[in-house]
Amino acid sequence: MSAGPVPKRVRKDPDARRAEILTMARQVFAASSYNDVGIAAVASAAQVSKGLVYRYFPDGRPELIVGVMTDLVAEFSQRLRQAANAPFSSQTRMEHLLGALFAFFAENPAAYRLLFRDPWMAREPAVEAAAIAVRVQLSAEIAGVMAGSGLPANDLMAASAGILGFALANVELCETEQIDPETAWRVSCRYATAFDGTAS
Predict the structure, then answer these.
(1) Is 111 exposed, middle or buried (0-12, 13-18, 19+ CB in 10 A)?
(2) Could you report the per-residue pLDDT of 51-87, keeping only the tens digit for each?
(3) Angle 39-46/61-84 helices, nearest 10 degrees?
(4) Nearest residue to 138 via CA among 84, 66, 187
(5) Which residues, 6 or more positions from 156, have their beta carbon under 8 angstroms from its beta carbon?
C-alpha cells in the first residue's frame, strides 16, 4: 500500500523567515541573559537549524541581539512619539511621554535588561554601539518635547540625556521594588519639567 505523496517543504519568504527567527531570539534573550544564550537555543526555539540562523545572521549572537534591540527600540520610540504628540502643553506632553516610558517597561519586563544591561555584559563592540544608539534615539524623543524651551543645542542635548538617565534609574528602582511606578513617574515628571520651556 502506497504511503501517498510526500508533501513538499514550503519555502518561506526570506524576510518572513528572518523576522520569525528574530521573534524567537527575542523570546530566548528575554528568558535568559545574553551571555547564557547560544545560537543553538535560538535555532531550537525557531525550529530551524543553526546553519539557517547563520544564513540570516552571519555574525551570530551579536547580530541577533542588535536585531532584537532595534525592534524593541522601534516599538518603544513609537509609543513615546504617540504619547508626546498630543496637542497639549509641553509639560503635559512630557508627562505623557514619561508615562509611556514607565508603561513600556511595566508591560515588557525584560526590555530594560535587553536594552540597557545585557549590551554591556556582551563586551561586543557592535552590541555596545547599538546600546549607545538606543540612548541617543530615546534622548532625541525627549529633546523633541523640549524643542521650544529656548535652551541652546548643547544644553538641550545634556538635559534630554539627563532626563532619560533619571527616568531609567527610576525604572530600575521599580524593577527591584524599591519604589512604586506611580512615585517613579511623578518624581521623574517633576525633574523633567524643572527645565525652562517644559512647564506650562
Answers:
(1) buried
(2) 999 999 999 999 999 999 999 999 999 999 999 887 7
(3) 70
(4) 84
(5) 143, 146, 147, 149
The reported pLDDT for the residue numbered 4 is 53
Question: How much is the CA Rg of the chain, to the nearest whole Å?
Answer: 21
Backbone φ/ψ region at 6: left (φ over 0), alpha (ψ -120 to 50), beta: beta
Distance CA 129, CA 119 (A): 9
> Tens digit of pLDDT for each residue in 84-121?
887 788 889 999 999 999 999 999 989 999 999 999 98
Question: Are the CB atoms for 95 and 189 separated by under 8 Å?
Answer: yes
